[in-house]
């Protein structure tokens, strides 16, 4: 009898987020009949898209032991650039390409500073975030522009369905599969994890650790570029500081993800679950006409709770590296 | 370009007039170093003599500031680490750089994992590939185990297996036995002998005389960044070797002095730090130096940490001067007068980015250097630390120097000094002379002996039986988590110690 | 020993010329900013106008409290992402109590500070007892406080503030605004705390090597908790004085501090190569705010001005990086 109780505790501790997520789903479905219907679920999935995509990029970078905060400003800046291009009449294809190129360029710059010169990724990407936020303001002049007024065709990218799921959701799941398989099964993916765990080990076997890190920043930048693209199209325009909320939610999703499964390390399934989790909360609470300010409250509490369940037994303080 | 011929020996590693400078110090001064094909060549020198620097230059982790280097007949100038590996050079050292969450098999094959048609890693083939390399060095490590779960000894052996995958022609081993237990050391030597028969050239860096004389053919001595001599093992006795390393004759390796041993100051009963280490009981007297020896896995470090409260213990009673004390954290131990000089001075003993002054006063800050327990008296700190620097002959320009710039021996003196300033009465030293040069060791022995002379009780934990034999009054031997034997040093021999360390039992059979 | 004494000699034979260039390199950031200020002053002399300088001091002082608090948390090896909302909460709670409930000014201010202390303690609790990474923990607090802020105020802002309170933000002594004096006072307190008190020293060493500190008898839990408590205590000051000085308190009053405070506190950890963090943070604050002011004077659009803290931070990191490299090379050539 005693053994069984102990195993339950361990189970909860290892799968904190999973448990919290299931709990939330159960509570919400009991609370409102509309929660579990397909339309609502689709809603949640669609809303999660940009967060999920962004969080995957962030997961990749955090797996290798670095951090990247630039996306909070980058996605907004990309939105402003996109609108400028659309208003000037550029084709949808060129807009897409430019978005991705900006993402790659950003990742490249960060890679040069962090990997090439050895500066702290925290500081550099923090500065990048500030700079991008400023540039967004500069390019967009702080005005919200709506895409449909200038070019409907580009919006079609996110409006279609493939099977039962909307295109953005497919993109998110596709990216998830890509990242997950890449990280767990390919050599380079494993090297990225290895760099995060012990970069010296990677160097000792003769691998170019710097190249791996640099490439990861660039890949992250590309994914962030994709995020900006999807987010702007989904919203239908460039809203000021649209990336703002993304900052904390993406980080939260990645952290939650590390609390989802046994190893306590960053992982893609966990991140996906974490992203879904945030919007599930928003959706569940909104559906029940709860005042909007309860949302961040509940999210914050769940974040702390989910992570605390896995960390409370740790026994030692975890510090932050700069 | 073929290798130069020198007395019918082919020279495969040829370093000529290598010099290397760092801020404030000349690490290498026109050093010549030649290694013949197939030989096992020892590189010895005190800490800071330049051995590691020379090796890093060979390995291209550093670039020399002057001089030339040829490996396997090829000019190594301008090459980087990967290119030099391509020449067949492999380095094995004590920083066990494995990926903790990867399996042993994956760690061994890292960098050359077999992939299937999709580009995914073929895990089965990976394990098959790793097996022969691992079995070359170890018969019982599980390939599927996560590297982080292995013992330190096993991890070290895995790094050797990993180095073999590249089929090296030249092996550099930097203190390879430092982390190994007895069994693994024997496995390593077996392996090295097999390398010899295969014609692999080995450069062996070590502080351990017996090992050098056991497996090496020639020795090169470095001192103060200069090459002192190269000689074959037969031509050089151990005493001569040490003399060349130190540059002065060491009258006495260990300055042991008899101290007045009085009452029991520390009493440990039924201490069980972790499940594996059981039921340890012993007494320590003031003025006594008590040694604890045992190979890795014996539990001696766990005992030390439990006494100090560094780790939570499962059960056990500790009394100081007859009074029972509850020790749950280091602070409890410190209040009770216990001090721990931990095994890893850089990670556990010092805040390396801070000055000597701030480090040395850390344990006694509130007690001695603060007005009202809060306001720091910096002038008093400086004065006290300056005096300590003089008393302990520490090699440093002053108390404000950052401790990470100090040599290993000096760093250790800072740590010991920290505890001396806190007026502790019981000192626990965990491998205090590891990685420290001969002169530094001598200074530390001196400090320990003085401690005992002044009435402190000292526990001296070490793997080096020579120093324990010479320094301690009594010695406890631990094996596999148990305290198996207690000996009086005057009445015992190194052989007897080693016997029990290796698990020997009195009735003659080995193993527990 | 032979080697060490010869090394000692080498270290002491650095010539005077080298000493000067080492000084210049170490403080390259200051040299850089000096020239920048010089250029600005020449181009737009109004920059050095006493009224303008007073304005720089004012904006600096408002952000200084959160910055000092944040830099102390950095020193302890953690981060605090919740400070903007702690500042906001302090502002809203104190004004609410003073206006709606009629508390006297001193009580309102005390309440603001107390709630900040409470939140800081909560942050510290999560880090030291629940062992949550401070990033995640304060992220959670950020979320929670956001909810609480709206719950408390219903999104409304306070417009008419009590006179005594306004004096704290708008009053002047010798033509210098009150918050500046508070900044000086708090700066001295924080600086002396970190440099000269046992706790400040221990906090720094906990950040330096937590395990070594623990094994030396430092109460690492208490020190870490203390750092978060101080940050929580100081943050409401920024919010309340901002409200007092602008005569209005809105829910998002703390948000504007996020970027400059982070930039300033990060600079603080870098400017003096990790030592004297409070002084470094002060310089960071002044650099950011003065350049922001300069940009304003030079007619730079508000959008670009937002980029200023990011650029200043980047410049500081870059200078520090190159300074470190140049310093080590200098020492080699000094032989």
Short synopsis of the structure:
Chain A is mainly alpha-helical and 322 residues long. Chain A has 14 helices and four strands. Chain A has a single domain (17-311), classed as ABC transporter involved in vitamin B12 uptake, BtuC, CATH 1.10.3470.
Protein traits:
heterotrimer, A: 322 residues, mainly alpha, ABC transporter involved in vitamin B12 uptake, BtuC, two-stranded antiparallel ribbon, two-stranded antiparallel sheet, 14 helices, 4 strands, 74% helix, disordered N terminus, B: 512 residues, alpha/beta, Rossmann fold, 6-stranded mixed beta sheet, 18 helices, disordered C terminus
Report the top-level CATH class of chain A. Answer: Mainly Alpha
How much is the radius of gyration of chain A in Å?
Answer: 20 Å
- The name of the CATH topology of the largest domain in chain B is Rossmann fold
Number of domains of chain B: 3
Q: Which protein chains make the most extensive interface, counting residues with beta carbons within 8 Å of the other chain's beta carbons?
A: A-C, 48 and 56 residues
Query: What's the total count of β strands of chain A?
Result: 4
Question: What portion of residues of chain A belong to β-strands?
Answer: under 5%
**Unreliable residue runs of chain A:** 1-5
If helices are DSSP runs of H or I spanning 4 or more residues, what is the number of helices of chain B? 18
Question: Care to describe what's here?
Answer:
The complex is a heterotrimer of chains A (322), B (512) and C (335). Chain A is an all-alpha fold. Chain A has helices at 2-14, 16-31, 38-63, 71-87, 92-116, 121-140, 156-159, 167-185, 187-197, 199-204, 209-235, 244-258, 268-287, 294-311; strands at 145-146, 161-162, 165-166, 237-238. Chain A has one domain (17-311): Orthogonal Bundle (ABC transporter involved in vitamin B12 uptake, BtuC). The model of chain A is unreliable at 1-5 (pLDDT under 50). Chain B has 512 residues and is α/β, with parallel strands linked by helices. Chain B has 18 helices and 23 strands. In chain B, helix 15 (408-421) packs parallel to helix 16. Chain C is mostly helical. Chain C has a domain at 49-254. Helices cover 79% and strands 1% of the residues of chain C. Chain C has a two-stranded antiparallel sheet with strand order 1-2. The radius of gyration of chain C is 22 Å and the shape is globular. Chains in contact: A-B, A-C, B-C. Chains A and C meet through helix 6, helix 12 and helix 14 of A and helix 6, helix 7, helix 12, helix 13 and helix 15 of C.
């Amino acid at each position: 009898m005693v053994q069984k109780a102990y195993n339950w505790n361990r189970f909860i501790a290892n799968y904190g987020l999973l448990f919290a997520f299931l709990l939330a789903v159960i509570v919400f479905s009991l609370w409102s009949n509309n929660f579990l219907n397909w339309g609502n679920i689709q809603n949640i999935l669609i809303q999660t898209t940009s967060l999920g995509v962004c969080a995957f990029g962030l997961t990749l970078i955090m797996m290798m032991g670095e951090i990247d905060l630039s996306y909070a400003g980058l996605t907004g800046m990309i939105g402003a650039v996109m609108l400028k291009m659309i208003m000037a009449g550029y084709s949808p294809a060129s807009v897409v390409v430019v978005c991705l190129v900006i993402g790659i360029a950003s990742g490249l710059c960060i890679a040069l500073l962090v990997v090439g010169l050895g500066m702290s990724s925290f500081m550099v990407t923090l500065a990048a975030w500030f700079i991008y936020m400023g540039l967004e303001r500069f390019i967009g002049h702080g005005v919200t522009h709506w895409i449909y007024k200038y070019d409907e065709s580009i919006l079609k990218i996110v409006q279609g369905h493939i099977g039962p799921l909307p295109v953005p959701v497919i993109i998110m799941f596709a990216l998830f599969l890509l990242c997950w398989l890449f990280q767990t099964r390919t050599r380079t993916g494993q090297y990225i994890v290895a760099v995060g765990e012990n970069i010296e080990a990677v160097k000792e076997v003769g691998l170019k650790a710097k190249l791996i890190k640099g490439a990861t920043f660039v890949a992250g930048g590309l994914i962030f570029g994709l995020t900006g693209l999807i987010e702007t199209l989904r919203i239908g325009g460039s809203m000021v500081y649209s990336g703002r909320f993304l900052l904390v939610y993406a980080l939260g999703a990645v952290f939650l993800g590390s609390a989802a499964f046994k190893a306590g390390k960053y992982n893609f399934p966990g991140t996906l679950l974490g992203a879904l989790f945030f919007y599930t909360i928003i959706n569940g609470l909104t559906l029940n006409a709860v005042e909007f300010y309860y949302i961040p409250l509940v999210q914050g509490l769940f974040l702390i709770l989910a992570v605390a369940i896995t960390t409370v037994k740790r026994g030692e303080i975890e510090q932050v590296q700069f | 370009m073929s290798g130069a011929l020198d007395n019918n020996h082919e020279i495969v590693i040829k370093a000529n007039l290598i010099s290397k400078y760092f801020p404030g110090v000349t690490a290498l001064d026109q050093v010549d170093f030649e290694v013949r094909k197939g030989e096992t060549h020892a590189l010895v020198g005190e800490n800071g003599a330049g051995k590691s620097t020379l090796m890093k230059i060979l390995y291209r982790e550093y670039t020399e500031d002057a001089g030339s280097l040829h490996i396997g007949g090829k000019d190594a100038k301008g090459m980087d680490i990967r290119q030099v590996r391509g020449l067949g050079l492999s380095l094995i050292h004590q920083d066990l750089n494995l990926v903790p969450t990867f399996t042993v098999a994956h760690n061994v094959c890292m960098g050359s994992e077999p992939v299937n048609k999709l580009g995914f890693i073929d895990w089965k083939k990976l394990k098959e590939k790793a097996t022969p390399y691992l079995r070359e060095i170890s018969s019982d490590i599980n390939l599927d185990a996560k590297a982080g779960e292995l013992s330190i000894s096993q991890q070290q052996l895995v790094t050797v297996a990993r180095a073999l995958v590249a089929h090296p022609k030249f092996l550099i081993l930097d203190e390879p036995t430092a982390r190994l237990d007895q069994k693994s050391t024997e496995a390593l030597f077996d392996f090295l002998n097999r390398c010899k028969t295969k014609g692999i050239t080995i450069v062996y860096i070590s502080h351990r005389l017996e090992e050098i004389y056991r497996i090496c053919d020639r020795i090169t001595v470095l001192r103060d960044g200069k090459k002192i001599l190269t000689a074959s093992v037969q031509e050089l006795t151990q005493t001569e070797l040490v003399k060349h390393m130190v540059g002065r004759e060491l009258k006495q390796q260990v300055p042991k002095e008899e101290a007045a041993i009085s009452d029991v100051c520390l009493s440990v009963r039924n201490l069980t730090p972790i499940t594996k280490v059981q039921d340890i009981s012993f007494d320590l007297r003031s003025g006594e130096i008590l040694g604890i020896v045992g190979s890795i896995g014996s539990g001696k470090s766990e005992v030390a940490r439990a006494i100090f409260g560094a780790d939570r213990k499962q059960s056990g009673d500790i009394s100081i001067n007859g009074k029972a004390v509850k020790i749950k954290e280091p602070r409890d131990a410190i209040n009770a007068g216990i001090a721990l000089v931990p095994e890893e001075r850089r990670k556990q003993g010092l805040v390396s980015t801070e000055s000597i002054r701030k480090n040395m006063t850390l344990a006694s800050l509130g007690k001695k250097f603060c007005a009202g327990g809060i306001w720091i008296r910096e002038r008093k700190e400086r004065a006290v630390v300056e005096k300590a620097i003089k008393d302990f002959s520490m090699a440093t320009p002053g108390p404000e120097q950052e401790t990470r710039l100090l040599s290993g021996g000096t760093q250790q003196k800072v740590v010991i000094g920290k505890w001396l300033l806190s007026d502790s009465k019981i000192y626990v030293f965990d491998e205090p002379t590891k990685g420290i040069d001969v002169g530094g060791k001598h200074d530390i022995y001196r400090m320990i002996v003085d401690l005992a002379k002044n009435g402190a009780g000292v526990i001296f934990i070490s793997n080096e039986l020579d120093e324990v034999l010479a320094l301690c009054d009594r010695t406890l031997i631990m094996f596999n988590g148990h305290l198996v034997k207690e000996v009086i040093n005057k009445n015992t021999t190194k052989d007897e110690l080693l016997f029990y360390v290796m698990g020997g039992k009195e009735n003659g059979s080995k193993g527990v | 020993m032979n080697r060490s004494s010869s090394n000692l000699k080498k270290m002491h034979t650095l010539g005077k010329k080298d000493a000067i260039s080492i000084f210049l390199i170490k403080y390259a950031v200051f040299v850089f900013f000096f020239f920048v200020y010089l250029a600005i002053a020449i181009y737009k002399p109004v920059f050095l106008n006493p009224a303008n300088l007073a304005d720089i001091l004012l904006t600096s002082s408002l952000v200084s409290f959160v910055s000092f608090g944040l830099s102390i948390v950095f020193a302890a090896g953690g981060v605090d992402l919740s400070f903007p909302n702690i500042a906001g909460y302090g502002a809203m709670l104190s004004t609410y109590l003073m206006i709606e409930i009629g508390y006297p000014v001193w009580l309102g201010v005390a309440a603001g500070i107390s709630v900040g202390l409470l939140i800081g303690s909560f942050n510290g609790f999560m880090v030291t007892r629940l062992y949550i990474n401070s990033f995640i923990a304060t992220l959670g607090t950020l979320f929670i406080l956001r909810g609480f802020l709206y719950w408390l105020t219903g999104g409304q802002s306070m417009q008419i503030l009590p006179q005594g309170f306004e004096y704290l933000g708008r009053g002047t002594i010798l033509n210098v605004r009150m918050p500046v004096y508070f900044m000086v006072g708090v700066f001295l307190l924080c600086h002396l705390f970190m440099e000269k008190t046992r706790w400040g020293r221990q906090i720094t060493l906990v950040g330096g090597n937590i395990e070594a500190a623990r094994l030396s008898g430092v109460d690492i839990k208490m020190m870490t908790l203390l750092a978060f408590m101080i940050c929580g205590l100081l943050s409401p000051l920024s919010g309340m004085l901002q409200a007092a000085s602008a005569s209005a308190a809105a829910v998002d009053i703390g948000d504007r501090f996020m970027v400059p405070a982070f930039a300033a506190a990060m600079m603080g950890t870098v400017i003096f190569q990790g030592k004297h963090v409070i002084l470094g943070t002060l310089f960071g604050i002044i650099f950011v705010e003065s350049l922001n002011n300069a940009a304003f004077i030079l007619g730079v659009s508000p959008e670009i001005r937002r980029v200023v803290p990011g650029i200043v931070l980047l410049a500081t990191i870059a200078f520090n990086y190159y300074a470190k490299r140049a310093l080590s090379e200098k020492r080699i050539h000094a032989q």
